[in-house]
Design brief:
The protein is 70% helix and 0% strand. The longest helix has 13 residues. It starts with a helix and ends with a helix. Helix 2 packs antiparallel against helix 3. The chain is elongated, with a radius of gyration of 15 Å. The protein has one domain. InterPro entries: DUF3563. Pfam families: DUF3563.
């Protein structure tokens, strides 16, 4: 029963800003791409 509730909760989970930024940074393919993405996040260009 609790597993069903956990699945239901995760289905309606809206990612926080921090989770979205972490996912965006984790998609970097190399060091230069990561640095570029970090600069975008710092400038506020990433939404």
């Amino acid at each position: 029963m609790f597993q069903q509730l956990k699945r239901l909760r995760s289905a309606f989970h809206i990612p926080t800003e921090q989770e979205r930024v972490a996912a965006y940074l984790n998609q970097a393919t190399d060091r230069f791409d990561l640095e570029y993405r970090m600069r975008q996040v710092d400038r506020g260009s990433f939404r």
